[in-house]
Design brief:
single chain; 199 residues; alpha+beta; Lipocalin; 2 domains; 10-stranded antiparallel β-barrel; 2 helices; 47% strand
Length: 199
């Protein structure tokens, strides 16, 4: 009986430790990501036209770009590639991103890198046909990216910067129209825009 009592005491001591270790292992497991059917429908080539704020003058200038979207990495991410048409100085903007969805968090994520030197992670939530991504920039600023999916072939994107306590400032306002269900190769041999980041 003493032996059984000793075993019960040992188990009573070890079981909480095992449970805590198992809980810690579960907490450390990475969140699994996926591409939703709605995201996959964006696959193809898009033409974007709209305005972009000139950070030097504060004026809005005409902006156009080509965007390709395709699933990648075993359909866990959507890869985005964009190349703008040359501006009046011959500069070209280029960007690359990876978007995904985390079911356990009900959260969309976008990892974006571009030729201005910017690189960062955006976290997004979906309401209706709009996904709103937010990136926390230095000094408490927020970069807000709203993607409105008007239809299967028309999307509308608004990018804003918001400083603490101030009204958001619209940086880009672009309407995208799908031109092909096939992601076309973009010309990346043109000069890359060299712009100093303002954030």
């Amino acid at each position: 009986m003493r032996k059984l009592g000793g075993i019960f005491l040992v188990l009573a001591f070890l079981l909480p430790l095992w449970a805590r270790a198992d809980e810690n292992m579960n907490m450390q497991q990475p969140s699994m990501c996926m591409v939703t059917s709605e995201m996959k429908m964006c696959t193809g080539t898009w033409q974007g036209k709209g305005t972009m704020k000139d950070m030097k003058t504060g004026n809005n200038v005409t902006y156009s770009e080509r965007l390709t979207i395709r699933p990648t990495l075993n359909d866990k991410y959507m890869m985005l590639n964009t190349v703008s048409d040359p501006d009046s100085m011959g500069n070209v903007f280029q960007g690359k991103g990876f978007s995904t969805y985390i079911p356990s968090k009900n959260e969309y994520q976008l990892f974006w890198f571009d030729s201005t030197g910017f690189g960062g992670k955006f976290e997004g939530t979906k309401q209706g046909n709009t996904i709103t991504y937010v990136h926390e920039a230095p000094m408490g600023e927020e970069m807000i990216l709203k993607m409105v999916m008007d239809s299967d072939t028309t999307h509308h994107m608004i990018m804003q910067m918001q400083k603490p306590g101030e009204v958001p400032v619209t940086i880009m306002n672009i309407t995208y129209t799908k031109t092909s269900d096939t992601p076309m190769e973009l010309n990346s041999e043109r000069p890359v825009q060299k712009v100093q980041n303002s954030y």
